[in-house]
Write a structure and sequence with these properties.
The structure is a single chain. This protein has a six-stranded antiparallel sheet. Strands 1-2 form a two-stranded antiparallel sheet. The protein has two domains: about 1-55, Arc Repressor Mutant, subunit A, CATH 1.10.10; about 65-245, Beta-Lactamase (2-Layer Sandwich). The chain has helices at about 1-10, 20-25, 30-40, 60-90, 130-140, 140-150, 160-175, 215-240; strands at about 45-50, 55, 90-100, 100-110, 125, 180, 190-195, 200-210. α4 crosses α8 (about 215-240) and α5 (about 130-140) crosses α7. By secondary structure, it is α+β, with helices and mostly antiparallel strands.
């Protein structure tokens, strides 16, 4: 049911679609499409706009706006902290939030070094590779984690096996930070720590990333406390402000 709803949202994401166009875009039968459309309409997630057809409904837009506000508030709080982290570490710093089965970069401060990693704001990256992804993955309930790891294959030759990844996730939960080297992209290494919400789950992941030639094992261990401290500073700032924690 959820997969079908998402397929309909994808179909109308860029503008209204007639019922016939929805059937063609989703590949569902007319009966299934009609049943889904009416259910989404009833919940305000879809609306009929006359001859233009169906488009995203007011409730969907309110939910999207609320999520954007939370991300913007979190980013505003985190940005000066990321700037200090980039300066103290000498590496690029990023802030990620979870977006479905991926992670979304909502802020990025580049290193001043000529040789540096660049992650664009708005980049969608996997949860199953890279230290920031492992931060989210380590805190997921076991059924959700198992679903994401179903059919898991490393993205690079240096990526961990499934058993190794599971051991890594246990270590992440225990020590409060994650590291990766060449798991998502060859030659890139990173260190990440969770920004924890009031209920104990991460609302974000703070990272530093750089060329693997600079981020060897010993330097990663030295950077981990800096990254954890930055994550705690964001938590404390959010706690003082309140709004971004909602």
């Amino acid at each position: 049911m959820l997969d079908r709803a998402v397929a309909i949202f994808d179909a109308v994401e860029r503008g209204a679609r007639t019922f016939t166009a929805l059937v063609a875009a989703t590949g569902f039968s007319r009966t299934t499409t009609h049943r889904m459309v009416k259910a989404l309409e009833a919940h305000g997630l879809l609306e009929l706009d006359g001859a233009e057809g169906y488009r995203l409904g007011p409730r969907f837009l309110r939910l999207a706006a609320a999520a954007a506000d939370r991300e913007r508030s979190l980013r505003d709080v985190a940005h000066p902290i990321l700037e200090r982290l980039a300066a103290s570490s000498g590496e690029s710093a990023q802030l990620y939030v979870r977006s479905g089965d991926q992670r979304l970069c909502v802020d990025s401060v580049e290193s001043s070094s000529e040789l540096r990693t660049i992650v664009e704001v708005g980049a969608l990256l996997p949860l199953v590779a890279g230290s920031a992804g492992k931060v989210f993955l380590a805190h997921l309930p076991e059924p959700a984690r198992d679903r994401l790891l179903e059919g898991y294959r490393p993205l690079t030759p240096e990526g961990p096996t499934r058993d190794r990844l599971l051991r890594d996730l246990t270590a992440v939960r225990r020590r409060g930070w994650a590291a990766s080297a060449g798991e998502r992209e060859p030659g890139v290494a990173s260190v990440s720590a969770p920004v924890i919400a009031g209920d104990g789950g991460p609302i974000g992941s703070v990272s530093v990333s750089g060329p693997r030639v600079r981020l060897g094992r010993e330097r990663v261990r030295r950077l981990a406390p800096l990254v954890k401290a930055a994550a705690r500073e964001i938590e404390d700032s959010i706690g003082a402000g309140g709004s971004a924690r909602a």
